[in-house]
Design goal:
Chain lengths: ~200, ~200
C-alpha cells in the first residue's frame, strides 16, 4: 500500500528534493534507532526528527522493519535470506544457518556494510543496533519459526558463536579460519550450533 | 636475572625519572607491538623508540613476554592463570578453560583493561594485539601443553567462541547471557568447547 502511495507521489513529482529527503529520514532513523532502540523508536519520531510528514516516511520506506533495515544499510534482507533455515525444521538447522551466514559474510558486497555496522559495537548506540538488528531481526525470527523451547537463550548462545566467527574470520583475521573454505567452516561449527539449537540446556 | 640487575639499579637511584622512563618504554612497546606484531618487535627497537638503552628495558620489564603483557596493561598473567587448565589433561579442559575465562571477565578489576584492549579490535593495530595477546599468549600455550593435534585450528575455534561470549555478555550486553551465573555460563558452553578441543575435525 505504501508502495502505491509512493508511486503516485513520485509520478506527480511532488518532491524534487527526494534524494535529500530520503537521506534525512535515513539519518534520523539511524540516530534514533541507535539512541532509543528499535522498540523505543516510532515512525512518527523519525519523521519529526527529519522534519517531514510521517506519511512520507511510510511512503519511502514502507514498514518500520523496512526502515530499520534501510537505516542499517545492509544489502541482505534477513527476512528472506533466512527463510530456508526455518523451513527445513530444527534438524540440520545449525548447518543451514551457518551456510547462509557464511555466504553473506564471504560476499564482499554484503560484508562491507555489515562490517561497518559491527565496528560500531564499541559505541553504546552500536550495541543497540547489533542487539536489535542481529538478535531481533535475524536470529529471533529463526528461533520463533523453529518453535524452539527457551528460544531467547538458545539464540543468544547461537549469536555468541556467530559473532565470534565474524570477529576472528572477518575482523581480526585469524588463521586458519581466514583460509578455510565456507564448507569447512560450516562443517567445523555445525555440531556446536546444532547443540545450542536443540541440545540439552544446563 | 633482570630482576637482580633492576634491583641494584633501583637501589643506586641512578634514574630518578624512572616513572617517566617506564611510561615511555610502555608507550613505545604498545605502539610497536600494535604496528609490527609480537614477532616483528625487538626489545632493542622498543628501547630505541623510547630513547633508552636496551638493558634498561630488560631491567624494568624482564622478558619480551613480560613487556608485552605490561604493554597490554592487563591485570592477569595468563601464564599462571591458565596453568590449571593444561595440568588436568584434555578431559574437562573445556570446562576448566571456561571457568578461568569467566572468573577473569566477571571480575571488574581484570575486565576493564581487557575491555579497553578489545575495543581496539576495530583498528588494525588492535587486531594484531588480539592475535598476539589472545591467540599466542593465552590459548597457544594451552593447546601446546594439552598436546592437541591440529592445535592452531582447534584453538582458533575455541577462540572464536570465547570472543563471541566477550562480545555478547560483556560488550553488547545481550540477555539472558548477562544475567546468567558464571556456573550456568560455563555449563552452557563447556560441551561445545570440549568438542573443539578433542572432537572430530571435518
Amino acid at each position: 500500500m505504501s508502495g502505491a502511495v509512493g508511486g503516485a507521489a513520485a509520478r506527480r513529482g511532488r518532491r524534487p528534493g527526494a534524494p535529500d529527503t530520503r537521506a534525512a529520514i535515513l539519518g534520523a532513523a539511524r540516530e534514533l534507532f541507535a539512541a532509543s532502540g528499535y522498540a523505543g523508536t516510532t515512525m512518527r519520531a523519525v519523521a519529526a526528527s527529519a522534519g517531514v510528514d510521517a506519511a512520507l516516511v511510510h511512503h519511502y520506506f514502507g514498514t518500520k522493519d523496512d526502515l530499520f533495515l534501510a537505516a542499517l544499510q545492509v544489502r541482505v534482507d534477513p527476512r528472506t535470506a533466512l527463510l530456508p533455515v526455518a523451513e527445513g525444521g530444527v534438524g540440520g538447522a545449525g548447518e543451514r544457518l551457518l551456510g547462509v551466514f557464511v555466504d553473506v559474510w564471504d560476499d564482499e558486497e554484503s560484508r562491507l556494510p555489515l562490517l561497518a555496522l559491527f565496528r560500531g559495537i564499541t559505541e553504546p548506540g552500536g550495541q543497540q543496533l547489533v542487539r536489535d538488528g542481529f538478535l531481533r531481526m535475524v536470529l529471533g525470527p529463526v528461533g520463533a519459526a523453529l518453535g524452539l523451547d527457551h528460544a531467547d537463550r538458545r539464540m543468544a548462545l547461537v549469536a555468541s558463536q556467530l559473532v565470534g566467527i565474524v570477529v576472528l574470520r572477518y575482523v581480526v583475521l585469524v588463521e586458519p579460519l581466514v583460509s578455510m573454505s565456507g564448507d569447512e567452516l560450516v562443517a567445523s561449527y555445525a555440531p556446536a550450533l546444532q547443540r545450542f539449537l536443540d541440545g540439552p540446556l544446563p
